[in-house]
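Q: What does the assembled structure look like for these inputs?
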Amino acid sequence: MNIQLLQTWYLENHRKLPFRETKNPYHIWVSEVMLQQTQVETVIPYFIKFIAIYPTVCDLAHAEEEHLLKLVEGLGYYRRFRLMHQAAKIIDHIYQGRFPNTYDEIKALPGIGEYTAGAIMSIAYNKPYSALDGNVIRVISRYMGDDRDMRQQKNRNTLNDINQSWIEDATPEIYTQAIMELGATVCKPKNPRCGMCPIQEHCVAYQQNRQDELPFLSKLNGPTSHHYVTLIIEDDDHYYLRKRDEELLKGMYEYPQFDVESIHHLETLLQEQGVELIIEEHYHREKHIFSHQVWHMEIHHARLLKGKSPHWISISKNQINEVPMATAHRKINIKR
Ligand code: SF4
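A:
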């Protein structure tokens, strides 16, 4: 691999992203967490707002979790932000707000794995630590012509070793960003732009015209379907919401939602708990697709007649947009 060509290409061609124009380890960490499972274009406005509201890791450590979740509402995978919050508190307490600067200290923080630790060490501190994400896996597997299953950790470990050996001969802060950028903008999943690739000369996939076959990723099981009855319960100027404590979407608010066969089963279930509702006849259905789940929601409007579940929280209609809510419920059309 001609590392010098790759790095020169990066310096001349990279996109001017707000999180690529900084060496601040906290900012790089925030961006790497946001970029997990999320497109760059989506992340940019969230990143700018996040850094404006929490400019330092201590500001994040002292944030209210609900404010934090509201700020990132719409990005999904909210567990990553709750872990980030825990890590910020540790940095605030243990390191007196100074972002740690060794790989082991960084990797020991909640929510930080090898990839994120490698990205922070190389981009912020210019130290040679591999950061192997999906883009880098694609570039290296194509460049080496490696057609083993990259869902398997042992095969990814081989690529990580190659990436580690390359970064040791490179300028780490440039190299890590360069190989990620190459994967994002040139060596793309479909229709890679090999004609403008700085490492084309020795690329095995290019020579053998096998770009479409690599990387090889074995098929995953499809998403599981879940059917819910969802209640939009309101009185004159309030809705009743529930704060989730399930691992999926923990800390986010939702309209009360039940895994029951029908609205009639739900009415019976709630009556047994001393809750009586007037449920409107008209209802509609909506669907939301997560990466591993599909929610099919049958949505009913209701008014509370008697009793109330201890899990339901009354929220003023004016404030409904101020609480953190997952997109699956935020997008429900609650108007009748
Ligand atoms: S030559 Fe094409 S397939 Fe090979 S690394 Fe470059 S863009 Fe990817």
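Residues 139, 142-143, 186-187, 192, 194, 197, 199-200, 203, 205-206, 211 surround iron/sulfur cluster (CB under 6 Å).
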